[in-house]
Design brief:
Length: 743
């Protein structure tokens, strides 16, 4: 518990909360005690509040333009709504149009959605001021000044703490990767249904890929500006190693059902592999603590002992079962051992980079690096392409505009003390997906009730303004710190801050608490109802788009792997880019399935079939990653024609599946050799190599590196190809079933 608290106070989120609190409090104190006009400080503080949400991790360029655009947008919208605030007949239609337009900006991506939220905040909080008593232009200008002030402090933060952003994401990525390895270890020895563990893998893979994207944006963008400084070079090496660790973790040379069958009576061997994976995960956690400066880097003495024990158990298995009966099982174990040893080498490379970096390690050129950055499409065509009821963002923008008008009218009709609290609750809670809106509604209400309860207890015990001021000041940075980490806790501290800030000016503070609760309940009810009843975006309606992207990316990755198997040598940048695309698209598909599982049961149409397709795509990617990792890390022989036959047939099946999902007929000219002939050829080649190895053993040649490696390659490649082909056939059947029953 103490460690968690300590880490929180050292986190990027807490630092951002402190910066926000400073940015807000300094103008307020200066305006109150020096300028004798607190309204100046409050206007600047609003500008800070508006722009802060866009300050999310990313390249300096993206952070700069995000805050700048947010500042400009908040100025325009504040001035616009301040000008028409008293003209009710004009206000309502402009309110609806503006809320829709600002929300619709989110089609341009995550950072754009944050700018969109800033716009909504500016619209809503423009209703808090009486412009008959102060200059609207001055108020709007001070808001813009607040944004620029926050921009200045943000860049000062980056200068004073240059490593904190990148280090935090390295730590999060390493810890998530360690958890991923633990789940992989649990899958290896599992006596119950593995579906729950697969679901954990899907979620972790999505989170890790998101962290990878952020790190790419920060590091590869910084590379062009720093001319490859030692710091950036080291960061790029660390990141490259983490990508390799994830690929090898996703790469799964294990057919779990076959493993369960072959080693049913030899579970102690598999248990050792599980111990090894746990130990690798623990060592990754140790490395994350080293980056946190909590521990010094130490060699792991347990891993070599476990590997030695695995080697002894493999030898014992071979002796007990005897050759040639033990050959397939032995090769399976040796293959898994090789994968885990390679993972250990990856972790050792992480240690080496932390200590120092080798000058001969390959670093991407700026031109190559830019290929790994996911470009954000800001083409205005996206506005027209998404202007349809098939677009979740369009429907979300429309329902948000309507429910905002309804909330505004309710506040006016019932003369609520602070009607804008209803609108704020709606804007904060409502999201395009039902599941996220539901979760945020619950967290918002619970957090508000907890905060209100704490505030009431404090008020009943003391009426000391100093106590109120201290609580309001402390709760401000904590509220901002928890917004990304835990929304319920954020709602608690937001409520405390709002209540005790009002307590400094409002004598009847308990009425503020009461109205805060009522307004939150009204806003949450409206937001939840709108998401359910007004053009709801149920995930089953568009999840096929994620299927198509994932399947296509997997096919392109397969083609790159096949090309590399033929040409060998250095891994091309194109290979790495296709690998990255496959990982990202499969992770996005996993996230879409997760959102589907949060929808109401009645809207989870064809859930079991959708789950099948999701698992097929993940398993397909795991098998591809296993093939790719083997080809890259081992000396391989001349590619047999049977390999190309399998790849051709698999690609043909993939194209059929895509055609079914897209309601189009895709022609694929397939090779004349049948898959059965290719399978027989691989089996024949394996049997010939097995007989050759038996002969060598009979002649006293216990160790034949050449024949052994050929046996291993033939078995692994053929098994993976058979598995991929089976998956591609199953994918067609599941896609047909999905299309038939989801219409």
């Amino acid at each position: 518990m103490i460690e968690k608290v300590n880490r929180f106070f050292k986190s990027l989120d807490f630092l951002k909360g402190i910066v926000m609190a400073i940015a807000i409090l300094i103008p307020v104190f200066i305006s109150k005690y020096i300028l004798n006009d607190i309204h100046v400080g409050l206007s600047i503080a609003l500008g800070v509040l508006f722009c802060a949400p866009t300050d999310v991790p990313g390249s300096t360029k993206h952070v700069f333009f995000g805050i700048l655009i947010a500042s400009l947008l908040s100025f325009i919208l504040t001035f616009l709504f301040g000008s028409i605030a008293t003209v009710f007949w004009l206000l309502l239609p402009i309110l609806g149009i503006s809320v829709f337009s600002v929300s619709y900006i989110a089609v341009f991506g995550f950072r754009a959605s944050l700018i969109s939220f800033v716009g909504l905040m500016a619209i809503i909080l423009s209703f808090t001021r009486d412009y008959s008593k102060e200059s609207l232009l001055q108020h709007a200008s001070l808001i813009a000044l607040g944004g620029l002030w926050y921009l200045l402090l943000t860049f000062l933060k980056l200068k004073l703490f240059p490593k904190i952003q990148t280090d935090q994401f390295f730590i999060k990525t390493i810890e998530k990767t360690a958890n991923y390895l633990r789940v992989r270890a649990d899958l290896l020895v599992c006596e119950t249904d593995r579906n729950e563990l697969f679901q954990k893998l899907f979620n972790l893979q999505f989170e890790i890929n998101e962290h990878h994207e952020t790190l790419r944006d920060i590091i590869l963008t910084a590379q062009s500006k720093s001319m490859l400084s030692n710091k950036v070079r080291r960061q790029q090496l660390l990141f490259t190693q983490l990508v390799d660790i994830l690929e090898l973790a996703v790469a799964n040379p294990v057919d779990y059902e076959k493993f369960d069958l072959v080693f049913d009576k030899h579970t102690e061997i598999i248990a050792d592999f599980q111990k090894l994976m746990y130990e690798i995960a623990s060592h990754l956690d140790h490395i994350s603590r080293v980056i946190r400066n909590e521990e010094t880097l130490k060699d792991n003495v347990v891993i070599p002992k476990i590997i030695k024990n695995i080697e002894r158990n493999i030898d014992l298995y071979r002796i007990l079962i005897t050759m040639p009966k033990a050959r397939v099982g032995t090769l399976m174990l040796l293959n898994l051992k090789n994968y885990q040893e390679k993972q250990v080498q990856n972790v050792i490379s992480l240690e080496r980079i932390l200590n120092n970096y080798a000058t001969n390690d390959k670093i991407l050129s700026h031109k190559e690096a830019t290929r790994f950055l996911t470009p954000q499409d800001y083409d205005f065509k996206k506005l027209t392409e998404n202007f349809t009821f098939s677009s979740p963002i369009f429907k979300h923008s429309l329902r948000l505009a309507i429910i905002t008008i309804i909330g505004f009218v309710i506040g006016k009709l019932f003369s609520m003390q602070n009607p804008y609290w209803i609108l704020l609750t709606i804007a904060v809670i409502m999201r395009p997906s039902f599941g996220l809106t539901k979760a945020r509604s619950i967290h918002r209400v619970i957090g508000t009730l907890i905060g209100a309860t704490i505030a009431t207890i404090v008020i009943l015990f003391t009426q000391n303004p100093l106590v109120y001021g201290i609580i309001a000041t402390i709760s401000l940075p904590l509220a901002f710190s928890f917004i990304q980490l835990n929304y319920r806790n954020a709602a608690v501290f937001i409520t405390l801050n709002v209540v005790f800030t009002y307590a400094l000016f409002e004598p009847n503070i308990l009425s503020v608490v009461q109205f805060r609760i009522i307004d939150t309940l009204i806003g949450a009810t409206l937001a939840f109802s709108a998401t359910y009843f007004l053009w709801p975006s149920w995930q089953f309606q568009n999840i096929h788009e994620y299927f198509i992207s994932a399947i296509k990316s997997n096919q392109l990755f397969l083609n790159e792997i096949a090309t590399f198997y033929h040409v060998k040598g250095e891994v091309s940048t194109t290979y790495k880019v296709k690998r990255k695309k496959a990982f990202l698209d499969v992770a996005e598909m996993n996230a879409a399935f997760q959102r589907l599982s949060q929808d109401p049961k009645s809207k989870q149409i064809e859930l079991s079939t959708i789950y099948e397709i999701t698992v097929f795509n993940n398993t397909f990617l795991s098998s591809l990653a296993a093939l790719g990792a083997y080809f890259r890390n081992n000396k391989t022989s001349i590619v047999p024609k049977e390999f190309d036959v399998y790849v051709d047939k698999i690609c043909g099946n993939i194209k059929i599946a895509i055609g079914i999902l897209e309601d189009t007929e895709i022609l694929h000219k397939s090779t004349e050799i049948s898959i059965e002939d290719a399978k027989i050829s691989y089996e024949k080649a394996f049997n010939e190599l097995s007989n050759k190895r038996d002969y060598e053993i009979a002649q006293g040649e216990e160790h034949s590196i050449k024949t052994g490696s050929q046996l291993k390659e033939t078995l692994l490649v053929s098994e993976q190809l058979k598995w991929l082909y089976k998956l591609s056939e199953n994918l067609i059947e599941s896609v047909k079933k999905y299309k038939k029953n989801s219409l």
